[in-house]
Amino acid sequence: MPVRPSRGLSGREVRELWRYAVATDFHAINPSIRTEEQTLGYGTEDRFLPFDQPISTSRFTYSINASGQCLAVTDKSNIDIYDLETGERMVLKGHTSILAEIGFSPTDPNLLVSYADRDKDNHYNNANEIIIWNVEEEKAAAQSRPPMAVDEAAKVGIRAALSSLEETLKASEEDLEEMQDSLKAMIEQIDIRSRVSSSRRLDGRISTHFQSPLFSNGGEYLIYLPKSRPASNGDDTWDICLYNLATRDITTLSGHRDSIMWTGFSPDNTLIASADWDGFFRVHDVSGKEVWKWDTEKQNWAAVFSPDSKYLAGTDGAGIVRIWNLQSGEETARFDNGPRWCRTIDWSPDGHHIIIGGEDHGRLRLFAFSDGKIEMIQERILSMKNSDLGGLDPAVRGSVCRLMSVHKAQFLSSPEGAGTSTRLVHSVGLDEGIEVFDFDKGKKWRFVPPYNEDGSVAANQAGDGQQTLVGHIWRKETGEIGVIAADGIRFWRLD
Fold first, then answer.
1. 233 — alpha (psi -120 to 50), left (phi > 0) or beta?
2. pTM for the complete prediction?
3. C-alpha span between 283 and 275 (Å, rounded)
4. pLDDT tens for residues 361-375?
5. Where are the domains of the chain?
6. What does each C-alpha distance from 62 to 114, 115, 274, 318 come to in angstroms?
7. I need a labelling partner for 201 at 20 to 30 A (CA). Which of 247, 256, 372, 423 fits?
8. How many angstroms separate the CA atoms of 207 and 102, rounded?
9. Domain 11-61+208-493, architecture per CATH
């Protein structure tokens, strides 16, 4: 195969050259169990729930509620909420600029938060804004709200205004239509903002980056970042706010001086940990008091609490993984998982394993955890052997490998009373596949778009993006995984 020129490649070009192949894969934790591989593609799903209209995947975010009954997806400045059984849709309108994040409470199926970026060109949204929704209340209000005759109101308003200016301002029919459209847009934006009371708005930002949860595990607190984004890669004030959803009290956690990458509550709801680029991991209690501070001298990316709330695991910019004891503050373990970033980390529900995603070749490593110590026991690495990418100039091939970074890696929770789960779901940048692996059974499921089939992406099919995978949801109540694409959700049971 001829060596390709040393130049950058677009994401589309990489997808066209990529062929799915695995150099090293996971296997059952019990070595006596033979690992089975099962590849599932579109066309064999249990059921399909279409969206009312194709969603925009450029700034798409979604969340499933605590009961597993409803899915919220963003549609520009609106939120579409689908009943996953009936397909019924309701629309929430309250923001006047493009949504950046949404998230349901882990305990209250009707509580949803959303965040829209500041829009400097929009008079009605000049701040980063969070809205707290009660879905049932919004549904009842929508049913009782009469439709507005905006078109007629705009027409009457403009003609009334012009009648008083008749001798000084002459307007053509085209001018009238343009002014009526402008007034109509203003009325609609005022109506949208008036639907949500000021008591349910917060001036700030929420973030789910690197698997950050938005709420405390008990659902009492919302974690958010205040006001506009401070300066990164410097020395600025980066605070964290805790919003008590019952009392509406706000507690500020201070100390960080650079971009905050990850925040999260301990499972027992007593501690809040954070990782950022100033080189520190910090731990606060709910009163705002700093309990622990650890210096890594690196940009920190992600962290996770152990299920028993006794340990915190974190990753830095050099790929170093550290485990800290939250009672003594001591570092109990360290593992060099570098040389590059590891921005994905999760702890198994039984506390016995940690999964860490790397930047090169879609690398995932499984660690055994016991008494504060970790040991790498398995890894999964993608291969370029069967891919046209293998003919790239070595310098370009190295950068392409880094595009195959792990986007998400999380253990799937089990239904109450069903024991602990060793199922892992993960996705890799530019691969276009979502995979689930069961470490108990040694079984794998892989979900890919129909135009991919683990082969070359056909140019005439990839362009429409209707079935490009954008995420997944897990319904532990039904044992279904829902794979989300622009045109809807396809469900499978992981039997």
1. left
2. 0.87
3. 9
4. 889 999 999 999 999
5. 11-61+208-493, 150-193
6. 10, 12, 23, 31
7. 256
8. 9
9. 7 Propeller (2.130)
